[in-house]
Amino acid sequence: MIEFILNDTSIATPAAVGIPLLDFIRYQQHLSGTKIGCREGDCGACTVLVGTLHNDGMHYQSMTSCITPLGNAQGKHIVTVEGLNLPQGQLNQVQQAMVDEGGTQCGFCTAGFVVSLGGHCLSHQSSDYSKALAAVDGNICRCTGYKSIERAIHTIDEKLQAKTAGQSLGWLVAQGFLPAYFTDIANRMQGLSLPEPPITQSTDLDGHYIGGGTDLYVQKPEEMMRSNLYLMFDQEALNKIEVKHERCYIGAASSVSDVWQSEIMQAHFPRLSQYLKLVSSTQIRNMGTIAGNLVNASPIGDLSIFLLALNATLVLKHQDQTREVPLRDFYKGYKILDKQPTEYVISIYFDLPTAHTAFNFEKVSKRTHLDIASVNAAIQLKTEGMLIKEAHLSAGGVAPVPLYLAKAAQYLKGKTLSAEVVKEAARIANDEVAPISDVRGTATYKRLLLRQLIYAHFITIFEGTLTLEDLV
């Protein structure tokens, strides 16, 4: 049985863990406010809130239900747009702002916007307009031109400014943002358990290990509905981000949002929010796991490129045995991995940056945000003044696999920084790659992008020392 709370209703269902949460909501619970749009996690029409009980209370995140396996609802509070309605047909503050500012026309996308903004209201962070606007970065509207929605968001943010530190659910209920039942959800969640640890088969795996589902439910949704799924998303042992022996260990089931919010990661990567904002949308960052992005093996996987430049190592497990694989050796060919079917990733680790370490990540895509990269690239340099003592470079979109640029990295080792050194490193990197022409650009364009991104790395890291004019 899968047990969770759906809006104000306790659910215990024998439904298959692999059916999409969206289908359960619409077809078995007959809650039609959650819309079927793209079924790929892109449009946001099916957005729901997923609430998890922590020691300090409930924490809510927006997620796209079309690519969320029902099993990942175990032990959670799932909120649809109907669950945000006030009694007697009253509109809550978010709904009222959308009406007042003309933020809806056909209305198909509106429920998703309302739910995403409801998640922003429930955030434990203080509100500001930029955060409120970012909360709907995964919601697409084809009617209003967005400006009316932006005005509604501004109105909502102004009302939230009255909330002071320490005020949360009670204040939101009193001010008409939420219905009253929210205040009792934490107590009701006490009796719910998270999923059991996955069972590792002794022979061939009959099914799939799955984290957030953001790739598998796009690539093969029918198979996911029929398969045995070994759910990894809420395994406590796989969700930790911690430091051991001067290394950072990221649990395989940690989401992109977990990495973004990690104090450890923020302390060592000052531009972390700038980098991760380029990775998909809020809803997908709340769902997509680190291991899923790596095992997906997309040649343009953002986190694969990020971690390759950190010279990261994977820890894989089968039954009680573990082994380690350097990430640069993990990719053997297009979608071919150094991983057995019965193995799964339990963590990724890398040496923590020091005061003499510099890191940068760059990405170019047709849209700045919420898009797959044409080319992405990352670099890590260990320096002593202008001397480069060690270098690690990676690039995506230029080979059949996420590519570690070994020759360019080796060339940079021991070099003193100069424009000529950077140009030569870019030339060597271009000899290592083999891009193809596709909808994201021609092979020639991608080679040019790679050169420019390598230049951008050095201009960013050595700000004031190197300029674009020096390099071109």
UniProtKB/TrEMBL annotation:
PANTHER family, per this entry? XANTHINE DEHYDROGENASE (PTHR45444:SF3)
Q: Which SUPFAM superfamilies match?
A: 2Fe-2S ferredoxin-like, CO dehydrogenase flavoprotein C-terminal domain-like, CO dehydrogenase ISP C-domain like, FAD-binding/transporter-associated domain-like
Which organism was this protein described from? Microscilla marina ATCC 23134
Q: So which domain of life are we looking at?
A: Bacteria
Identify the SMART domains for this entry: CO_deh_flav_C
- Name of the molecule in the record: Xanthine dehydrogenase, N-terminal subunit
| Pfam annotation, one family | FAD_binding_5
Residue ranges of domain FAD-binding PCMH-type in the record: 164-355
2Fe-2S ferredoxin-type domain: which residues? Answer: 1-84
Under Gene Ontology molecular function, one entry of this record is:
iron ion binding
- Lineage of origin: Bacteria, Pseudomonadati, Bacteroidota, Cytophagia, Cytophagales
Q: Which UniProt keywords are present, listed alphabetically?
A: FAD, Flavoprotein, Iron, Metal-binding, Oxidoreductase
